Amino acid sequence: MEQKRWFLFSLAIISCLLFFSRGRVEVLKLKSDDDGPPVYNHTLALTLVEYTSAVYMSDLTQLFTWTCERCNGLTKGFQVIEIIVDIEYCLQAYVGVAKDLNAIVIAFRGTQEHSIQNWISDLFWQQLDLNYPDMPDAMVHHGFYSAYHNTTVRPAVLGAVKRAKKIYGANISTIMVTGHSMGGAMAAFCGLDLVVNEGEVNVQVMTFGQPRIGNADFASYYSLLVPNTFRITHDRDIVPHLPPYFYYFPQKTYHHFPTEVWVRDNFSNLVSAEKVCDNTGEDPTCCRSVMGISISDHLRYFGVDMMCESWRQCNIVMGNEVERYSRKDSMGNIFLSRTVPSTETKNLPKTGVSSL
Length: 356
What we know:
By secondary structure, the protein is α/β, with parallel strands linked by helices. Helices cover 27% and strands 21% of the residues. It has one domain: Alpha/Beta hydrolase fold, catalytic domain (Rossmann fold, 3-Layer(aba) Sandwich), CATH 3.40.50.
């Protein structure tokens, strides 16, 4: 009985948090440049959602050779340069080159906790707890910031970008960064890092089901530095509502950066309608206009699965065929690296992998 009372009490608090985060009052207007907003590209979104889904694959052989089931659509011909698997923090990312886009693509995997419900519950209580370097008054979520900046992921990603540019040279004009859920948060920090610290001038970021990662000041800086950013939100996906936004305290609360694209499902999910939202990051007529209560909407975007092959924590498997491309560091983290463009691995078998 006592446990039941505590559950109902917790549920009531969470419902109140969601209700007060929906307010349709004027939100902080973010700074913007004079060149006008970037243009949303639906076809590019359909392509990047496939790249984002592929990063959830646990078979590193199939991922490295781009022969996985999720690698057979709009992303055909993609050349993987680097796969990073941070064992300690259960993170995964890859970097590669999409010749049809003339772009380097960086993709980050979302959270892989045993229970996504527990991860979502934890986000209700997260506080702004880190000052972003060299951005006065900008604060961010320490966990998301650290997942990118304080793990093996950042140096491996930046190294792979440099290697891809050296290999492909002038044929590469753009860096596209993508991710889902926590992977979307990491993608945003990566895009900002590429601009601020690496001097890249043509960076595009597109995320799916991304949580809030900073306050309004951070969102304002971000929108100036990485203006070609789109956050895709799916109908009633719960995660874009987290951590909660409290409109009574716009400067002190978490605040999304622009630009949101809200995808609504109609006619039993057979048809989707997309709305490009305003430049505030917290458009009250987009996903904030509904109660974000759906986990199923979080795990599927444009009809594409955003989770591992099975409903459990991802297991990493790798065949001996790609052993010569792999290495481990002292912590057991795994890296598969390509130094030159190659077709040597394209015909490797898809089976016969072994658990690491």
